[in-house]
Specification:
The complex is a heterodimer of chains A (522) and B (324). Chain A has 522 residues and is α+β, with helices and mostly antiparallel strands. Chain A folds into two domains: 210 residues, D-Maltodextrin-Binding Protein, domain 2; 235 residues, Roll (Dipeptide-binding Protein, domain 3). Chain A has 15 helices and 21 strands. In chain A, helix 8 runs antiparallel to helix 10 and helix 14 runs antiparallel to helix 15. The radius of gyration of chain A is 25 Å and the shape is globular. The relative contact order of chain A is 0.14. Chain B is built from 13 helices and two strands, in the order H-H-H-H-H-H-H-E-E-H-H-H-H-H-H. A two-stranded antiparallel ribbon of chain B has the order 1-2. The chains are: A alpha+beta (522), B mainly alpha (324). Chains A and B meet through helix 1, helix 5, helix 6 and helix 12 of A and helix 2, helix 3, helix 5, helix 7 and helix 8 of B.
Chain lengths: 522, 324
C-alpha cells in the first residue's frame, strides 16, 4: 500500500519533470507581463507584447520597427486630413465571427472610455472621427495633418464590436471578452502570474509552431536564469549582464543578442537658472555653463563610448551617435561616429571660460534599464578628466521621474526608447520646444528651445509625403545632435537565452518575445 | 479581560489611521504617481487629464478625506496599475503567502524546538555542537543566497524539484490550497525551507538558552529528587517555563514573515503578496500600498493579542488588565 503510494508519487514527479519538454508546448520566462487582458487599458510595453498574441493590430511592425501590413493591408492619405485603410478579408475572430471595419471603428471609440493611467488615447489623439465606407474600407478623419497616424495604429488592437462599451477589465481578465483575431486564444491569466495561450487554427497569418504557449512572469533575474537551467522554461528574456558571459560559454545554452531601441541620453539642463547650482572653486555661480554649446561639446568629447560598451557594459551595447538606432525613420547618415578627444574638450572648456572646470550634480536612474547606474558612474569619472567635479547619483526610477518632471536636476541621464521607430516620437518629445497645446516637448526636461530645429521638425509633421518627411526629420535630427541638445551615449543590447539547439529565434529590436515568430530548431 | 480587548482594538484603530497617513504623506513627498506610470508618448494634456481623473491635483488633505470617505463606504479603492479592486487583488495573492508561511513555521517549530531542547539538555555532546553551528548559519547566511543554492542543487543539478512558482491548487474542506496536491508540495517545500531557516536558528538558540538555564534551577533538582524521569521534567515542567520568550519571538517572527516574505517570494517566483507590495511601492500604486499596510497592521495586532492570551494560559501570574 505504502509502496504503491510512493510509486505513484514518484511517477507523478517524473511526469511533472517531463511536462515542459512536451512536443508542441513553448514555455517562456519573461521579466514582465501584462497588467490586464483588456488591450485598451494600458500602453505598457510588456502589455502590448503579451496581448498581441491574442489580438492583432491594424498596422504591424517588422523587426526593425518599420511598418508592415497587419489587419489593414494598405493605407494612404486621400486628402490632408483623411486616411483610408483597406482591411484584410477573410479574417475570423476566435469566436468565429468575421472581422470587419465596424470592429475597428468600435475599437478606436472604445479606447477613451476604458483606458487607464497609461492611456491608450495617445494613439488615437489625432483621430477626429471614423467612417465605415464598406466592410473592408475605413476612413479616419484627423485633427489637422497627421502623417504618423499609421505609426500610432501599430498599437491599435482590434476587438469585436459585439464586446460592448460596458465590458471592462473583469470581463477581459476572466476570458469572457478576451476575443481577438490573433494567433493564440486566451486560456488563463492572473496578475504577475502565468499567461496561458492556445493555438488559434484559423489565424489569417498561417500555421504557428506551438499548440500551447505559457508565458511565465519571473521578474527576478537570478530566478529566471535558474528556471531556464532547470528546464522549467524553454526561453528567457533579459538575461542579466552578469550571467551573460557564463551562459555564452555554456555549451548547453544558446544566447541571442540584439540591439534594443533604448539609448542612454545625457540631458544637460539649459535653463537660465539651474535647479542645482554649478560651483567654481567651491563657490556657487549664477550663470549656467551648460547653455554654452562649447561646454556641451566638451562633455560629449570626453565620453569614451568604446570603454562604456566593452568594459562598463561587458560588451552588451553599441556606441550611439544620435537618439535613434540606425534604420529608423529619420536617422541621419550625416552624423558621423562620435570622436573621443579629451584635449580638444579641455580647449573648448577653456574657450568657454572654464579653464579649471566646475562642479556639477549629475543624476541618473538605477533600475530602469540594464547598466544605467554603472554608466552613470563611469561618465562622472570620464568627465573628471576634463577637470570637472561631477557628483553622480543614481536613483530609483520611482524617485527620479517625478523629480525630473519637477525640473529638479541640472544634468541627468535616463534611457529613452523610440517605440514607434520614427523620429517624430523621440525628437518631438525630448528636443522640441515645450508646447502643451500641440503636445510637443512633453518630455523636454532641459528647457531646450531651438527655433531652427522647431521649424524643420514642424514642417515634417505637416508633410504627408513619406520621402520628403523623412528628409526633413533627418535634417532635424542633424540640427539637434550638432547642437548637443541631448548627448546620446550607448545603445543598450538585450539578451535572450534558450537550451542549445532547441529553438529558432530572431531577436527583435523592440525586445518583444513573440511566440508565433519562434519555431522549433530544424 | 473584556476591557483589555476593547483597549487593544482602540490601539489598533489608531495605528491603522497613523499608517494610512504615513503612506499618503510618503507618496506625496516622493512625487506624482502619474509621472512614474505615464507612457513616454503622453502629451501634457493627457497627463493633466489623468492627474485630475485620479484626484491627484487636489491638496493632500482633500485626497485623504476622499479616501476616508470611500473606506467608510467599504471601498478601499482600485489599483491604478491593474484596475482591479485592491481588496480582490490582495486577497487573490494572500492564500499563496499564507500557505508558504504556514509550512515554513511548521518546519521552524517542528525542528527548531526539539533540536534546541536537545542541545540544551546535552550541551556538551557533539550533536548539540553541530546543531548550534547550524543554527548560526541559519540566521547569518542571507536568505536569497541559500535560496539560489537550493535551486541550483535541487532544481538545476538534480532536477528533482521545480525551480519556482506555485504548483497545482487543490481543494481541502473547501479551502483552495496548493498543499492539497503533490505538485503543490513539490513547489512549496524549497521556498518553505528557505524561509524557515532564520526562524529555525532563532528557535534553536532561544530554546537551548532557556533549557540550559532551567536545568540548573532548584525546581528541576527537586523534581529529580522526587523521582520524576527526565522526560517528565523536560516536557511538563521545563518546556512550560521557558515557553514565554519563545512564544513572544514566535509571534513577532510570524508577523514579519507574513508581511515580508518578499525575498523568498522573489527568488522562487512565489505568487504571494510580498512581490505585489514591492511592485506597488515601485510604481507608487497608493491604493494597494495603503490596503496592504493596513492589513499588516491588523495582522500584527491579532498576532500580538494571541500571544498575550497564550501568556495568560502559560503563566497564571500574568493578568490581562483593561486599565494599565
Amino acid at each position: 500500500m505504502i509502496s504503491n503510494k510512493l510509486r505513484s508519487a514518484v511517477a507523478a514527479l517524473a511526469l511533472l519533470a517531463a511536462l515542459p519538454a512536451a512536443a508542441a508546448d513553448l514555455t517562456i520566462g519573461l521579466r514582465a507581463g501584462p497588467d490586464s487582458i483588456d488591450p485598451h487599458w494600458s500602453t505598457l510595453g510588456s502589455q502590448a507584447e503579451a496581448l498581441r498574441h491574442i489580438y492583432d493590430t491594424l498596422v504591424d511592425v517588422d523587426d526593425k520597427l518599420q511598418l508592415k501590413p497587419g489587419l489593414a493591408v494598405s493605407w494612404e492619405p486621400i486628402d490632408d486630413t483623411t486616411w483610408e485603410f483597406k482591411l484584410r478579408k477573410g479574417v475570423k475572430f476566435h469566436d468565429g465571427t468575421d472581422f470587419t471595419a465596424e470592429d475597428v471603428k468600435f475599437s478606436i471609440e472604445r479606447i477613451p472610455v476604458v483606458t487607464g493611467p497609461m492611456p491608450m488615447t495617445l494613439y488615437t489623439k489625432y483621430v477626429d472621427s471614423v467612417e465605415v465606407v464598406d466592410d473592408y474600407t475605413l476612413r479616419v478623419k484627423t485633427k489637422g495633418i497627421a502623417p504618423a497616424l499609421p505609426n500610432d495604429f501599430t498599437r491599435l488592437f482590434v476587438v469585436p464590436s459585439e464586446t460592448g462599451m460596458e465590458a471592462g477589465n473583469e470581463e477581459f481578465n476572466s476570458g469572457e471578452k478576451a476575443i481577438g483575431t490573433g494567433p493564440y486564444k486566451f486560456v488563463s491569466w492572473e496578475p504577475k502570474g502565468d499567461l496561458v495561450l492556445e493555438k488559434f487554427d484559423d489565424w489569417w497569418g498561417g500555421d504557428v509552431a506551438w499548440d500551447r504557449v505559457i508565458r511565465k512572469e519571473i521578474p527576478d533575474d537570478a530566478a529566471r536564469v535558474a528556471a531556464l537551467r532547470s528546464g522549467e522554461v524553454d526561453l528567457i528574456n533579459y538575461v542579466p549582464a552578469s550571467d551573460y558571459l557564463a551562459m555564452k560559454n555554456d555549451s548547453d545554452l544558446e544566447t541571442f543578442v540584439s540591439d534594443s531601441i533604448y539609448i542612454l541620453n545625457v540631458q544637460p539642463n539649459v535653463a537660465d537658472e539651474l535647479p542645482q547650482k554649478v560651483k567654481v572653486d567651491g563657490k556657487e555661480i549664477d550663470e549656467n555653463p551648460l547653455q554654452d554649446v562649447r561646454v556641451r561639446k566638451a562633455l560629449d568629447l570626453a565620453i569614451n563610448r568604446d570603454v562604456l560598451v566593452n568594459v562598463v557594459l561587458e560588451g552588451l551595447g553599441t556606441p550611439a551617435n544620435q537618439l535613434m538606432p540606425e534604420g529608423f525613420f529619420g536617422y541621419s547618415d550625416k552624423i558621423g561616429p562620435k570622436e573621443y578627444d579629451v584635449e580638444k574638450g579641455k580647449e573648448l572648456l577653456a574657450e568657454a571660460g572654464y579653464p579649471d572646470g566646475f562642479e556639477i550634480d549629475f543624476t541618473c536612474t538605477n533600475n530602469r534599464v540594464p547598466g544605467d547606474a554603472v554608466v552613470c558612474e563611469a561618465l562622472a569619472q570620464m568627465w573628471s578628466r576634463l577637470g570637472l567635479k561631477v557628483n553622480a547619483q543614481a536613483l530609483n526610477g520611482t524617485v527620479f521621474f517625478p523629480a525630473a518632471a519637477r525640473r529638479e536636476y541640472s544634468m541627468s541621464m535616463s534611457a529613452w526608447g523610440t517605440l514607434t521607430g520614427e523620429a517624430a516620437y523621440t525628437y518631438g518629445a525630448l528636443v522640441h520646444t515645450e508646447d502643451p497645446e500641440r503636445g510637443l516637448g512633453n518630455f523636454n526636461r532641459t528647457s531646450y528651445s531651438n527655433p531652427e530645429f522647431d521649424k524643420v521638425f514642424d514642417e515634417g509633421t505637416r508633410t504627408l509625403d513619406a520621402e520628403k518627411r523623412k528628409a526633413l526629420y533627418e535634417e532635424a535630427s542633424y540640427i539637434a545632435m550638432e547642437d548637443r541638445a541631448l548627448i546620446p551615449t550607448v545603445i543598450l543590447q538585450t539578451v535572450w537565452a534558450a537550451k542549445d539547439g532547441e529553438l529558432s529565434f530572431a531577436p527583435r529590436v523592440d525586445q518583444e518575445t513573440r511566440a508565433y515568430e519562434i519555431t522549433p530548431a530544424e | 479581560m473584556f476591557g483589555y480587548l476593547i483597549q487593544r482594538l482602540a490601539q489598533a484603530v489608531v495605528v491603522v489611521f497613523a499608517m494610512s497617513i504615513i503612506v499618503f504623506v510618503g507618496v506625496y513627498a516622493i512625487g506624482n504617481p502619474i509621472d512614474v506610470l505615464i507612457d513616454p508618448g503622453a502629451t501634457q494634456e493627457i497627463r493633466a487629464k489623468l492627474i485630475a481623473q485620479y484626484g491627484l491635483d487636489q491638496p493632500l488633505w482633500r485626497q485623504y478625506l476622499t479616501f476616508l470617505g470611500n473606506v467608510a463606504r467599504g471601498d478601499m479603492g482600485t489599483s491604478m496599475v491593474y484596475n482591479i479592486p485592491v481588496v480582490d487583488l490582495v486577497f487573490s495573492r494572500l492564500p499563496a503567502t499564507l500557505e508558504l508561511v504556514f509550512v515554513s513555521v511548521l518546519i521552524a517549530v517542528g525542528i527548531g524546538i526539539p533540536a534546541g531542547l536537545y542541545a540544551g539538555y546535552r550541551p556538551d555532546s557533539y550533536a548539540a555542537k553541530a546543531i548550534m553551528a547550524l543554527s548560526v548559519l541559519g540566521f547569518s547566511v542571507p536568505t536569497f543566497w541559500i535560496g539560489m543554492l537550493l535551486i541550483m542543487t535541487f532544481a538545476v543539478n538534480l532536477g528533482i524539484l521545480p525551480s519556482g512558482g506555485r504548483g497545482d491548487v487543490g481543494s481541502v474542506l473547501g479551502i483552495h490550497t496548493s498543499l492539497a496536491t503533490l505538485d503543490g508540495w513539490s513547489h512549496v517545500i524549497m521556498p518553505a525551507i528557505n524561509l524557515s531557516l532564520f526562524k529555525m536558528g532563532l528557535m534553536i538558540r532561544l530554546t537551548r538558552a532557556g533549557m540550559v538555564e532551567a536545568m540548573r534551577t532548584d525546581y528541576v533538582k527537586f523534581a529529580r529528587a522526587q523521582g520524576l524521569t527526565d522526560r517528565q521534567i523536560v516536557f511538563s515542567h521545563v518546556l512550560r517555563n521557558i515557553s514565554i520568550p519563545i512564544v513572544t519571538v514566535f509571534g513577532l517572527e510570524l508577523g514579519s514573515t507574513l508581511a515580508f516574505a518578499v525575498v523568498t517570494e522573489s527568488v522562487f517566483t512565489w505568487p504571494g503578496v510580498g512581490k505585489l507590495i514591492i511592485d506597488s511601492i515601485l510604481q507608487l500604486d497608493r491604493p494597494v500600498m495603503v490596503t496592504y499596510l493596513v492589513l499588516v497592521v491588523i495582522l500584527f495586532v491579532l498576532i500580538n493579542l494571541t500571544v498575550d492570551l497564550v501568556y495568560a494560559r502559560l503563566d497564571p501570574r500574568v493578568r490581562l488588565k483593561g486599565g494599565a
